[in-house]
Every structure is written in C-alpha cells, then in structure tokens.
C-alpha cells in the first residue's frame, strides 16, 4: 500500500457538500489530499494532514476532481474538415454527415481505430479527463458495431452501443428492417461488450416509436438506456428518456416546458454538449432554465468528427459559463459530479474518503480560472486511480 500526500492546495473542489464552504462544490482552502493506492484516503486542511510515503507540493495551485466526460464518440476513422468548412460558410449541420464517417470507419483496420482512440484519450487526459464514456455508431453492421465496442472496452468501462445512430445506408430503403437488425442480431452481438444503449432520436435518424423499441430491447438484454434527445429540433426524446428511466438525455437543446418539468421530476440527467452547438453554429442549450427548474445537469464534450471535434472539457466549461447561463461553480460541478451522475456512478466525480483517486491540478489559484481563462492549458497535473499521469 502506497500513500501520497498532495498538500498546499490553495483551493480544492471536493463536490462533497459536507466539506468546506457548505456549497455543492464543498470548497476547501489551504487543503490537502491523501491518496492510498487507487482511492482517496483523507481530505482536509493542509495543517492537519497525516504523513504519507510520498509528498507532492501543489505550491498554491487549485485542484478539482478529474473530469467525467459522459458523452463521446471516439471510435471512428477520418475527419470531416470539408463539412466543417462548408458549415462555417453557411451550410446547416445534418445527421447525414454521419455516413461519411461510417464509410471511413468501416474501411479502417482495428489498429487504426485503436490508435485514433488512444490519441484522443491522451488529449482528453492532458485536459483533466479521468473517466470517459464512448460509443459505437460509426459501423452500423453487426460486425463493425461489435468491433467498435470491443476496442472501446479495452479503454473504459463506460461503453455504449449506438447501432441506432442513423439508419445504415445499407437499409436506406427499409428502415424497419434496420430497426429489426439493431434490436435483434446486432444487439445480441453487442450487448456483451457494452453497459449502455443509446439512440439518436431525431428527424432524419429514429422517431420516438423506433427509439422506444430499441431502448426497450436493450433493457431486456441488460443494457441501461441513454438518449441523444432534442438536439436539432423539438421531439419525443426527452420524455421517452424520463419514462424509461434513462441515466441521461443528451443535448437537450430544444425543450418545451413539459420536457424541462419531466427532467426536473425524473431521475434522468440532462447532459449538455456545448461543443456541438459551437461547431454547428446552433442555438445554445439553456442550462439556466434546467437548473432553475431543479434538473441535474452534466456537461460533456460529445467529441466526434462531425458535430463537436473537441476533447476539451475546459473548453465546454468556458462555453457553458459564457453562453448557457451557468456559473463557474455550476459548470465545474456538472463536468465532474454531473458527469458521474449521468453514468450513475458515486465512486467518481467526488473527492472524499473512499472515492477514486482521480484529480486534476490547475496552474491557477482557483477553479474559476477554467472559465475565466478560456483556451489556456491550465491542467498541470492529473492523477488517475492514484497514479500520476500528467
Ligand atoms: O452527438 N447527434 C448525433 N450524433 C453526434 C454527431 C455525430 C456526427 O455528426 O458524426 C452528436 O452530435
Ligand atoms: Fe453525441
């Protein structure tokens, strides 16, 4: 058993309301943390810290729990630079672009896909992400979806089967047959490799009835639902998510009052993905409206080559604060504890005795600098499962 003391932390976000200032961030000043193997063994004032095998002096930096990026699409090949360029000249985003990445992904070797994934994970880790969820959805055949999940599962426990990203181009004339495939043989092949099942519920992808059939079939195979809901237009996705007790409804850009009420009443987290609105020049999701109604909000990157090609949670925090009505405290909670809630996890996103020793040090005296100094690489140290990575 090895213990590491990180001391001289000017400001520590614990997300444990029992700590510190009594806010949800559980902010401690002049703090220290002791890591014991993979877990947190102690959190408190630096002056009272116990001795440890190793000591690291944070020299007055701020520290936060590692980011929990609860929504990404990292198993893919190629990119969509031309599509982005066209969009920035005025073309609208549509789900159809997914087909470009499907073709590139099908043509890629396992080694290429894994090398890509590893590269984006390294980017994310250097920006403070210590847990990430990722999805299939660029294969859309039984073999290609299962292979994406197998590759993802080598890197994370939070693997999501998204065979229902769009109707496979091979089934363009017969979408019902594609839903049969996704809920039948494809699900059978994919379920052993995944924890979650997702569906893109949107015009041009899957309607409410199809989404319900897909998620219900997934539940019967032991997968837990989450939904791409209400991204490009109003629709049934959010209400369906709450009805099926999905862990998360993701995007939530176009919400009626009834959608907001449903999220506030239910157990489904609203995961906001501002990288997508940034990169598609779309209207921002209204985080303030959701928070004021009492919904739980998570913030994630949606990292994918089409709608949001960023692996940076700090970038998303800055957008959420500037354009979505969140305070810096709320945005940082949503990107850590909120992401954990969207994955129904209590062992991450919080720094208290017994949780996972996942944390990031910032080259700044306060977590607020993540929003205050947008675009600046402030993450200067990352511990994951108690091991220093950055
Ligand atoms: O979350 N909305 C659906 N899926 C992705 C975009 C995928 C793509 O454009 O390649 C998203 O934004
Ligand atoms: Fe997505």
UniProtKB/TrEMBL annotation:
Pathway membership, UniProt: Amino-acid degradation; L-histidine degradation into L-glutamate; N-formimidoyl-L-glutamate from L-histidine: step 3/3
Record: residues binding Zn(2+): 71, 73, 228, 302
Domain Amidohydrolase-related: 63-377
GO CC entries: cytoplasm
Chain positions recorded as N-formimidoyl-L-glutamate binding sites: 138, 304, 306
Binding site for Fe(3+): 71, 73, 228, 302
Cofactor note: Binds 1 zinc or iron ion per subunit.
Predominant subcellular localization, coarse grouping: cytoplasm
EC id: 3.5.2.7
InterPro entries: Amidohydro-rel, HutI, Metal-dep_hydrolase_composite, Metal_Hydrolase
Keyword Signal assigned: no
Coiled coil: none
Key words of the record: Cytoplasm, Histidine metabolism, Hydrolase, Iron, Metal-binding, Zinc
Family: Belongs to the metallo-dependent hydrolases superfamily. HutI family.
Chain's role: Catalyzes the hydrolytic cleavage of the carbon-nitrogen bond in imidazolone-5-propanoate to yield N-formimidoyl-L-glutamate. It is the third step in the universal histidine degradation pathway.
Protein name in the entry: Imidazolonepropionase
Gene source species: Streptomyces alboniger
């Amino acid at each position: 058993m090895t213990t590491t003391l990180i001391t001289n932390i000017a400001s520590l976000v614990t997300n444990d309301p029992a700590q510190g200032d009594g806010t949800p961030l559980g902010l401690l000043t002049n703090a220290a943390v002791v890591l014991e193997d993979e877990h947190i063994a102690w959190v408190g004032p630096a002056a009272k810290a116990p001795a440890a095998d190793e000591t690291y002096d944070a020299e007055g930096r701020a520290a936060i729990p590692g980011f929990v990026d609860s929504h990404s699409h990292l198993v893919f090949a190629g990119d969509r630079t031309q599509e982005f360029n066209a969009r920035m000249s005025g073309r609208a985003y549509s789900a159809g672009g997914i087909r470009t990445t499907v073709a590139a992904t099908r043509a890629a070797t396992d080694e290429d896909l894994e090398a890509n994934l590893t590269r984006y994970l390294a980017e994310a880790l250097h920006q403070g992400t210590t847990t990430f969820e990722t999805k299939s959805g660029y294969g859309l055949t039984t073999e290609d979806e299962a292979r994406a999940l197998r590759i993802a599962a080598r890197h994370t426990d939070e693997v999501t089967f998204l065979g229902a990203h769009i109707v496979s181009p091979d089934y363009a004339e017969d979408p019902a047959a594609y839903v049969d495939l996704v809920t039948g043989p494809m699900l059978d092949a994919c379920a052993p490799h995944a924890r979650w099942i997702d569906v893109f519920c949107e015009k041009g992808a899957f309607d409410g009835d199809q989404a319900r059939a897909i998620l219900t079939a997934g539940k019967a195979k032991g997968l837990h639902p989450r939904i791409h809901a209400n991204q490009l237009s109003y629709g049934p996705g959010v209400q369906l998510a709450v009805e099926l007790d999905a862990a998360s409804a993701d995007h939530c850009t176009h919400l009626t009052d009834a959608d907001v009420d449903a999220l506030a009443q239910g157990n489904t987290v609203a995961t906001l993905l501002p990288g997508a609105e940034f990169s598609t020049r779309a209207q921002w999701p209204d985080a303030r409206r959701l928070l004021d109604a009492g919904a739980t909000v998570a913030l994630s990157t949606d990292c994918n080559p089409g709608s949001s090609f960023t692996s940076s949670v700090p970038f998303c925090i800055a957008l959420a604060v500037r354009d979505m009505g969140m305070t810096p405290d709320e945005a940082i909670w949503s990107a850590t504890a909120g992401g954990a809630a969207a994955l129904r996890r209590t062992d991450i996103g919080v720094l208290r005795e017994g949780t996972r020793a996942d944390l990031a040090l910032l080259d700044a005296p306060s977590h607020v600098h993540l929003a205050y100094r947008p675009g600046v690489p402030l993450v200067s140290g990352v511990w994951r499962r108690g091991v220093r990575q950055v």
